[in-house]
Amino acid sequence: IAKVMGSERELRFWSKPMAVKNTALFRYLQEMVVQEKVSEPLAKSFERLQPKDNDGPMDGNRRYAINVCHLLDIQCSINCPKKNNVPKFGGVEFRSFPSVVGEGMRAAAK
């Protein structure tokens, strides 16, 4: 939808696919599923494979297209206590922004 609406660049800044944002974590999770073998708690994998490069203190696990930081016991952002201190409530967030919801989404669906 982002491509159709011409807003892929904006959307991808705020919600990158894991395969793009964190290739190491993506490959590890794929391998874990294929082998049906877990070598460590999932939260530890997210922490261990957190990329060193980022887009500032608000960046982090919360900026994947599918955000699981409300589900797993992991930091949501690199350095934002307000985000990191939110209690875990078991939610999964599918991130989308103005260009791909509301009127933009209706137009793309027609």
Keywords:
2 strands; mainly alpha; 110 residues; 7 helices
Structure description:
The chain has 110 residues and is mainly alpha-helical. 42% of the residues lie in helices and 4% in strands. The chain is built from 7 helices and 2 strands; from the N terminus they run H-H-H-H-H-E-H-E-H. The protein has helices at residues 2-5, 8-14, 18-21, 23-35, 42-48, 81-84, 103-109; strands spanning 66-67, 93-94. It has a two-stranded antiparallel ribbon with strand order 1-2. The termini are close together. The relative contact order is 0.19.
Strand order of the largest sheet: 1-2
Please give the radius of gyration in angstroms. 15 Å
Question: Overall pLDDT, averaged?
Answer: 82
- What would the principal axes of the Cα set say about the shape? globular
**Secondary-structure element order, as H and E?**
HHHHHEHEH
Question: What fraction of residues sit in β-strands?
Answer: under 5%
Q: Give the low-pLDDT segments.
A: none
Largest sheet: 2 strands, antiparallel
What oligomerization state is this entry in? Answer: single chain
Number of strands: 2
Structural class determined from secondary elements: mainly alpha
Spatial gap, N to C terminus: 11 Å
Relative helix content: 40-55%
Tally the helices.
7
